[in-house]
Design brief:
Elements (H helix, E strand, L loop, with lengths): L2 H27 L28 H13 L9 H20 L5 H4 L8 H7 L3 H6 L15 H4 L4 H11 L5 H12 L2 H11 L3 H12 L4 H4 L4 H19 L4 H19 L8 H12 L4 H19 L3 H14 L7 H16 L2 H14 L6
C-alpha cells in the first residue's frame, strides 16, 4: 500500500474511532438523556445495555477471532467454491458463538420479545385480513394496535415469520436458527457480487472482514439479518443478470433480482434506498439491460401487496405519525443525527471509516498506485 493511501486510511480510521468514543461517552459525560434504554446501563448509540458476560459461546468466539487473524492470508489460496463454503461455515460459527455467549437465550430472547414479529406471526390466521387491516392498526391510538416492530415495517417482515410458523418452525429457537442460517449467507452473496463485477481479488481480500464483522453481534438475534440476506442476494442476482451475454439468462436473473429487491421494499420502509445500490451495480457492470425487467418484477411484488390490501404509500405517512407521537419526542435529533453514524461504525467496525476515506479520496483526488 502506498504511503498516501496508508495516510488516508489512518485518517479515516481515527475519525471513525473518535466518533464512536464521543457517541458512547457524551451522554454519560453531560448526563444527557437520549433514550437509548430506560436505566443507567443503557448504552447509546446502541439500543442495548452494558452487561458483560461469559458463557458457552465465549471460548469458541475467542478462538474464531484468533483464527481469523491467523488465517487471513489463506483465503486467497482457496478455490472459489471452497471460499464460498468457508465463508458460510465461518460466518455461521461466528454468529452462533457470539449469540451463545449468553447461552440459548442469547439466540431466541430477542425474537420472542412481545414487540417483535414472531409472537404476532403466531396469532395470524388469515393473511388476507392481515393485509387489508394492516394500516388501520399502525397508529398508537388504534384499538389493538401493532407492536413496535410490526407497526414500524411493511407486512413482508411479519409474513416471513408467518411462513416459519406454518412450516412448523415458529418456536423461538428454530426461528432463531433459521435467521442465523440466512444471515450467514450474506458474506457469500457479497463475494458473488464482487466476483461478477470482475474484482475477485478484492473479494478474497474482503472475505475475512465480511465474515468476522462486528455486525454479527446484531445479525444473530435480529430479523434485520433476514432483510440483509434478501437484499444481498437480490443485488447478487442483479449483478449476475448484468454480466450474462444471453438474453434469456439475463431476463431470468433480472426477474429473480426484481422479486427479491421488491420483497425488500415490503420488509422495511427504508429499503427502497436499495435502488441506489442497484443502480451502482449496473453502473459498475456497465450494463443497463436488466433494469426494466428487474424494475417490472419489483413492481409486481409491490403491486401485488396493494391489490391484496396493503399499499406501501398509504402506510408510510401513518407510520410517521406514530413515530412522531411516540418515541421521537424523547430521542433528540441533536444526538441521533450523528449518533446513528457511530452505531453504523460499531456495526461495520472502525475499519469502515478507513475504507470510506480511501474510496472518497480515490474518487476526488486519485491516489498513488499501489
Amino acid at each position: 500500500m502506498s504511503r498516501d493511501r496508508s495516510r488516508t486510511a489512518l485518517v479515516g480510521l481515527v475519525t471513525a474511532s473518535v466518533l464512536i468514543v464521543v457517541a458512547f461517552s457524551l451522554p454519560f459525560a453531560i448526563d444527557w438523556d437520549v433514550d437509548a434504554r430506560s436505566d443507567r446501563f443503557g448504552l447509546a448509540p446502541l439500543h442495548g445495555f452494558w452487561r458483560p458476560a461469559l458463557g458457552v459461546g465465549t471460548v469458541p468466539a475467542v478462538l474464531l477471532a484468533v483464527g481469523a487473524v491467523a488465517s487471513a492470508g489463506r483465503w486467497q489460496a482457496l478455490s472459489w467454491r471452497r471460499l464460498l463454503l468457508a465463508s458460510y461455515a465461518a460466518s455461521l460459527s461466528w454468529l452462533l458463538s457470539l449469540a451463545l455467549v449468553r447461552g440459548p437465550a442469547g439466540l431466541d430472547r430477542i425474537l420472542a420479545h412481545s414487540s417483535e414479529y414472531l409472537p404476532t406471526a403466531r396469532e395470524v390466521t388469515d393473511i388476507g385480513a392481515l393485509l387489508t387491516g394492516y394500516v388501520e392498526r399502525i397508529p398508537q391510538s388504534a384499538p389493538n394496535n401493532w407492536p413496535t416492530h410490526v407497526a414500524g415495517h411493511p407486512p413482508g417482515a411479519v409474513l416471513f415469520f408467518v411462513g416459519l410458523v406454518r412450516l412448523g418452525l415458529g418456536s423461538d429457537l428454530p426461528a432463531a436458527l433459521v435467521v442465523c442460517a440466512l444471515a450467514a449467507s450474506v458474506p457469500a452473496a457479497v463475494l458473488v457480487c464482487l466476483r461478477q463485477l470482475g474484482v475477485e481479488s478484492a473479494a478474497r481480500s474482503a472475505a475475512p472482514f465480511l465474515v468476522f464483522s462486528p455486525a454479527a453481534v446484531f445479525m444473530a438475534v435480529s430479523a434485520d439479518a433476514v432483510f440483509a440476506a434478501v437484499a444481498a442476494w437480490g443485488l447478487a442476482a442483479l449483478t449476475r443478470a448484468a454480466t450474462r451475454p444471453r438474453v434469456g439468462t439475463m431476463v431470468g436473473w433480472s426477474v429473480l433480482a426484481g422479486l427479491l429487491l421488491g420483497w425488500c421494499v415490503m420488509l422495511s420502509y427504508g429499503l427502497p434506498l436499495l435502488g441506489l445500490l442497484a443502480l451502482g451495480v449496473l453502473l459498475a457492470a456497465r450494463s443497463w439491460r436488466p433494469l426494466p425487467v428487474a424494475a417490472a418484477a419489483a413492481l409486481v411484488v409491490v403491486g401485488g401487496f396493494a391489490l391484496a390490501g396493503f399499499s406501501w404509500w398509504e402506510a408510510y405517512p401513518v407510520l410517521v405519525d406514530r413515530y412522531s407521537d411516540g418515541i421521537a419526542a424523547t430521542r433528540p435529533f441533536a444526538y441521533w443525527g450523528w449518533g446513528n453514524l457511530a452505531a453504523l461504525l460499531v456495526s461495520g467496525g472502525p475499519a469502515l471509516g478507513a475504507g470510506l476515506a480511501v474510496a472518497v479520496r480515490r474518487r476526488w483526488r486519485p491516489l498513488d498506485p499501489v
